[in-house]
Automatic annotation (TrEMBL):
<dbReference type="InterPro" id="IPR000757">
    <property type="entry name" value="Beta-glucanase-like"/>
</dbReference>
<feature type="domain" description="GH16">
    <location>
        <begin position="33"/>
        <end position="253"/>
    </location>
</feature>
<keyword id="KW-0732">Signal</keyword>
<dbReference type="InterPro" id="IPR050546">
    <property type="entry name" value="Glycosyl_Hydrlase_16"/>
</dbReference>
<feature type="signal peptide">
    <location>
        <begin position="1"/>
        <end position="25"/>
    </location>
</feature>
<dbReference type="Pfam" id="PF00722">
    <property type="entry name" value="Glyco_hydro_16"/>
</dbReference>
<protein>
    <submittedName>
        <fullName>Galactan endo-beta-1 3-galactanase</fullName>
    </submittedName>
</protein>
<dbReference type="GO" id="GO:0004553">
    <property type="term" value="F:hydrolase activity, hydrolyzing O-glycosyl compounds"/>
</dbReference>
<dbReference type="GO" id="GO:0009251">
    <property type="term" value="P:glucan catabolic process"/>
</dbReference>
<dbReference type="InterPro" id="IPR013320">
    <property type="entry name" value="ConA-like_dom_sf"/>
</dbReference>
Amino acid sequence: MVWFNQAALVLSSALLVADVLPVGAVRTIIPKTSFDSQSNFDADWNYLYPWGSDHNGGARMTKDNVKFSGGTLTLTANKVSGQKPATHGGQQIAINYLSGAIHAKEHFNVSKGGGYDFSAELKATTTKGTWPAFWLTAVQGWPPEIDMAEWKGSGKISFNTFNTSSIVTAKDVNYPSPGNFHSIKVETRDLNGKDVQAKFYMDGNLITTQVGAGYFGKPMYLIINLQMEGSSGSPGPSGSTEFQVRNLEVLSYNP
């Protein structure tokens, strides 16, 4: 979820196919029921980004733009005017939307021989100017960042792992039927006591395997947000836009 000039990180085939270290017993960190009620939500999630309401696009996040009903989370972006600009990277960004974001209370830190499974069903728009995302980013400093699913108004879905702002492993594939829910799963595992391997699945199919260099032992936030414009282009839509998530689950294999 940052702007970047995409550059493929060429990793040795040996690293990508190396056996990950054995994982520990499974524990449920976020259950599939976290969007069933306000009390369930409050047990696992906070509103907004971890750092506040603004980031690197044209939407400002508010609690009012986050709803959940019947086990489905809905983030809605509405066109607005008269908002003061956001500031990111020393530059001002016009705020043209109010939208929704949430982040998990838990921090996710791959430990020795461990890892996580992140899975959810998501319904995301691919319209120009819309920028929904399901992602992990560093609690301290940056990177790590793993974009487990990101849509940038191109008709494609992106799966990315950042090692620096310019050294990025990125995989873009066509995103079929954006009006339907699609299952996304990312498995993060300790690779060698230093690096973390991430396997990305869509609708049960392995799409890509990537490696976060030096990610081991670094805690990450889990964020779901509907950002607008920015990397997805502008102008964005004049009406409302929704991003929906259901059956989200996080499992830990850390010892």
